[in-house]
Amino acid sequence: MRVLSRHQREAAEGTEYLVGDLDTGAGVDAAVEGVSTIVHCAGSAKGDEEKTRTLVRAARRTGRPHLVFISVVGAERVPVVSAADRAMFGYFAAKRAAEEVVAGSGLPWTTLRATQFHDLTLLAARQLARLPLVPVPAGVRFQPVDAGEVAARLVELALGEPAGLVPDLAGPRIHPMAELVRGYLRATGRRRPIVAVPAVGRAYRAIRAGANLAPDRAVGLRTWEQFLADTVR
């Protein structure tokens, strides 16, 4: 297995690390040379589309490897139009644009959409909990999923045949954002008042309506409470 990273790492058994950058293209050709499958996990709210184009161009130069992409549930349902949309939910638009690059790449491809990872939900809860009064977007719910379970599914897809857009992978439970933050506060022994704050924009309305959820694909096993018990000290 070969891993492309912006940072140098020591090789591990069965794994080779190469330094590269999808923003500049440096090191990408060497990373994909001779491979049969590429799992594209790099992403951000800005530049995701161009990073994916850089990877696709390099992949096409080396042949026709199977391109496996991880996206987000709701990428096609959350309209990111205004500055307010982009500030809060730009990640959905970035993932949708990258999805389209993958599908139009001319390479054999598979895309998996997952709900929000426990780890990213924890990061958001930690940042909010630093404030003496914790603001959460009113009416917003999440369905966090374990990153390890998503990784295991990506391995299955990478070892299989190209399948296009496959069924979503979502966490076992849907939680209001306030409930997720409250669970984090309990796990860390903190007490903070939580206040629901309304937001504006089409993306926010779509999220409030559940565009980021997949209740019929709640196949994840590890709950938010289990994750907190194992992670937060």
TrEMBL record:
Transmembrane segments: none annotated. Keywords: NADP. The keyword Methyltransferase does not apply. InterPro entries: NAD(P)-bd_dom (IPR016040), NAD(P)-bd_dom_sf (IPR036291), NmrA-like_oxidored (IPR051164). This is Nucleotide-diphosphate-sugar epimerase. Residues 10-119 form the NAD(P)-binding domain. It holds the Pfam family NAD_binding_10. The keyword Cell membrane does not apply. It comes from the Bacteria. The lineage of its organism: Bacteria, Bacillati, Actinomycetota, Actinomycetes, Micromonosporales.
